[in-house]
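Box S2. Input/output pair 1.
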Amino acid sequence: MDLRKISSQLSVSPQITPNDMAAIKEAGFRSIICNRPDGEGADQPSFDEVQKAAEAAGLEVRYVPIKAGMVSDQDVDAFGAALDTLPGPTLAYCRTGTRSATLWSFHESKNRPMPEILAATKAAGYDMNGVARRIANGGKTPTETGDAKYDVVVVGGGAGGISVAASLHARKPDISIAIIDPADIHYYQPGWTMVGGGIFEASETAKTMGSLIPRGVKWIKAAVAAFEPANNAVILDGCRVVKYDRLVVSPGLKLDWEAVEGLEETLGRNGVTSNYRYDLAPYTWQLVQEMKGGRALFTQPPMPIKCAGAPQKAMYLSGDAWNRRGVLKNMDIQFMNAGGVLFGVKDYVPALEQYIDKYGVTLNFFHNLVSVDGAAKKATFKVAKPDTEATEVTVDFDMMHVTPPQTAPDFIRVSPLADAAGWVDVDQATLRHKSFDNIWSLGDVMNAPNAKTAAAARKQAPTVADNIAADIDGRSPVAAYDGYGSCPLTVERGKIVLAEFGYGGVLKPSFPAFLIDGTKPTRAAWFLKEKMLPPIYWKAMLRGKEWMAKPEKLTIAAE
């Protein structure tokens, strides 16, 4: 037998036989649904045979036969009625299990989000992306025929999505472009470190989405449910369908707060904060101002995360504030890093280590936060050092700045666009999808091995825009992304170590060393971060003005 669990109450399998009943009973099932019509195959036992053997074993049985490839709305209702009335857990079967998995997907579509359905069936070995449109329609057969259609559809209205739409519109003003994003507010997320350090106000980092969508670009205010790349279609919640000639995927990533037990319940109180959320960054600064002594933990989860330097940026600015107030001697600052190095590009580590010493920071490598007891002010970490057995350690704290684990969004991870790890699968130079020639991706969601930063998206947007414009003209890709990313490490108020690097950790400085030596803390880099980068973001990058962001020419070696 091949029993495949889909939910706590349902498993599916290929054809079973009367001889399987004892094992099915022993596996804990209390009922069976047959979804295979009698007579499909010469070696197939009849339902009557299966029923008699099942009932003899004390199992309840229902016959809901479905013709292959012809699941009607009435079939879904009949399956649901059987599933709802039979004692669980239930085993449903057909020739391969696919019809049973499909019926469950349609039945559950009113109660579960599509990504959860697609993930559950995929884990059982059944790909339901081909019927995603019907799942989005509550399991009913879609009747809508008035699909919207655009030359280019951009999924995601964040830094990458708006920038690439603006850059492409500047190159091809006559083509139709649509951005799909359900959010009302667009955030300048690089500013949240400065909010948590008492330099920016949170309100300075937010603008309405409508004010930023490029003129001439359509904004579809909706959430994406699934992709149908074979049909050049994006399915929205509610089963609306948007079709495209070319697609750009840039929805950012998911902050997986739920992955840390107890974290969501204590965020924003009990001394637990995070600069990774707009509403919590001010609480970081409040805690820093209030503390006169005690233990402060700063956590960093396993990679990849957006802005890999952000966890320690918060730590340095906090240490600087305590130093300025004269209470640093009373503080026990600990950096709890799931990784094994302070920073991934070694050229910047010596400058950072000077500030580790200055603020008296204890470095705890291979420490990954797994649970929080906010009321007791205790944090538990899994310690997994190389070549040693993993252990757990619980640490008391007075303040804890948490960087959450991060993954691709659910609707991306279960889609045909994703690689095995769940990220959009692209060529790292052209940012074109490896399997679908009319799809590109940029920003945090794609799998190129670069730092996930807004500065990276600023460089990626012109690359994607150039390559789409070339594709529209019938030409091969012309631009290459070199992996550029920038991480302005705020080591103290007024000084920054400006880390700029590309693929493989190769340094990619934007300025000559006499202006800004990125391997050392400088006031010039602070001025860039505080005064210049916000207006560059709002008034240049999001408007398609590619200041210091011209893409590299694609060479034979990069193809």
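Box S3. Input/output pair 2.
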Amino acid sequence: MTWQLSNTALDEQQLLVNESLMFLGNGYLGVRGNFEEGYRDDFKSIHGTYINAFHEETEIQYGEKLFGFPDFQQKLANVIDTQEIEVYLDGERFSLFEGEIINFDRTLHMDQGYSVREVHWRSPKSQEAKLTFTRVVSFVTKELFAIKVDVEPISNVREVKLISKVKGDVTNYVEKDDPRLASNHAKLLYANEAKSEAGLTQVKARTERTDLEVACVMRHEHDGQHSIEHNGYEIIETFTFDGASNASLIKYNVYTDTLRHGDDLLEKGIQIQSKLVEFETILKEQKAYLDEFWRVSDIAIAGDDSLQQGIRFNLYHLLQSVGKDSVSNISAKGLSGEGYEGHYFWDTEIYIFPVFLMTNPEIAKGLLLHRYSTLDAARLRAKEMGHKKGALFPWRTITGPESSAFFPAGTAQYHISADIAYSFIQYYLVTKDEQFKQEYLAEVLIETARLWADTGFMKNGQFLINNVTGPDEYTCIVNNNYYTNAMAKYNMEWAYKIYQDMRESELVQQLGVTEDEALFWNEAAEKMLLPFDDELGINEQDDTFLNKQVWDFENTSDEEYPLLLNYHPLTLYRYQVCKQADTVLAHFLVEDLADDETIRKSYDYYEHVTTHDSSLSYCVFSIMASKLGYDEKAYHYFNETARLDIDNLHKNTKDGLHMANMGGTWLAMVYGFAGLRVKEEGLSFRPRQVKAWDDFSFSLRFRDRLINIQLVDGQVVYTLVEGDDLDVSHFNEQVQLSVGSPVSKVL
């Protein structure tokens, strides 16, 4: 059960959710879990196939447009559809909405990398068959999406007919009443070529403004009678089989695009098709790939199969969505749906990046290199926003330009530049990659430090940063947001440190960094205002947060959440109400800036005014509850993360999975229950026993070592699996680890 996600009932209310839950991807290509045979005519499926970073730009329409507002918005485009395969038994079309379903079982195999749907169906005219749909998106051949359909006739079926389609003309999903979705511009892609040659079906399509092209080269493997017809940019292939025996059809779909494959996309697709192995071998390759992934990335618990399933589900879908090339990242919904239009947010650096940093640092490095590739766009955005120097990374983007039209909760979230700098620093601390420091880290830190130096100013011996928005989107355009100031302080401290180390380097000379400039970063960091309320003993979220009236939570009904869908932003801004962790998040990321008592009092205060309307919030409260010894709260908030999508807790899983929350599940376990922190001096642990679990174990990669950590029977066991000896800190006690010599410590 814990390696599979299954459903055995055809619940129409759950169909759209299951399309997201059952999606398959590999970081390049993502395919929603749509039914091959289709749905009822009156059912609106979110039919989707996506290529990471393949997008169109649409003009943003403003009632009133002011200087610096972005002109265009980038949107992930739904691409060529190859999912459809109709099934007919003696002329009767198979449909789960007609006839009798004798058995239905749909399973996602997370340890093997494929999904299978098995249906035993009796038609309205009593024709009967067992149908099996197996699909896979390959981790080994990133361009490949394959479907295998097996039909086993049960009654006296004379003929089985399978009709396979490829559609070049597709549209995106829109929903006008939810700001988290696109409300217009359904048509982003235009087919321009469709042909069949030498047993290969070939379709191309292009976006208009971005001028990106996608192609699909498809072939079938079968032993039936075959015919083909063209209907514009839709190609329909019919396969007829004798009903006296089983029918089988395999559909190999190869996608190429101009971002990765350059020109001659059809020829590139043909070349990839020519090298494909048979379907069963593809499944074996998937298993081998995932065996290695799970060897390092699995988190195993004993005592709760439901949570174990949720944990593996989240890790598996992160792997399926994370970009693994230089032109892509990981969007808020991954490749599972169109929520947030395929944009990359700060979610990547703070919630998702750490998972791969500590388990698969090469993937983590790729995410950083993609951000680095957008540095020039961030420099340009800083100038558009009135800064003389520096880099302002966008709130929402795919290739670098800002795509957020609502600046109070978008562009004003300057903290993303510090978040990105923070992740670059974390990568260096974990890998000690000196070449990375010199080629990427230094430049990012210098340019982001310049942003902060130009954004803030000195007054009465303190450095202030005004008119920004922190992570809490229910409190916008404020002065001295604690999170922003704390992260900016850390950013500038490290920029000064890197300058001191590399002051004679060619890079520092090219960037024109002066001694006075670097000294100012250090001074600004030292004198950064970190708001603190003496009476409450807490870090204030910003200068005015505590002067506002507390939201009337007692008289707010469940139907009014999330508040952003039911209240005007200005109404929310006037109250003490947090959408998500803000100051509490800063206390996690840069915990050394506050003492434990301040952290405790702040946690207690903000917990009562936080709605957790954002899925990014629960894990942070869980992590900090663990730090503070609030074990029941830590476990409660963790529970909210582990199965958020499987159980559709936020009621919008249909639009795609919550990738940051999935990363947050891992964070809550590793940084929360195990108490991991990455310090300049190395790894530090402050683990806590989870009473609900008999056993809890996971592995980490750190500086070319592989370490396993197990919490069991009131002890923590540290085991160095691979690599040279390593010292780690256990509750401030140095512990030396050597291969073959596990070390046990009492919790």
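Caption for Box S3: The first strand starts at residue 4 and ends at 7. The mean pLDDT is 96.
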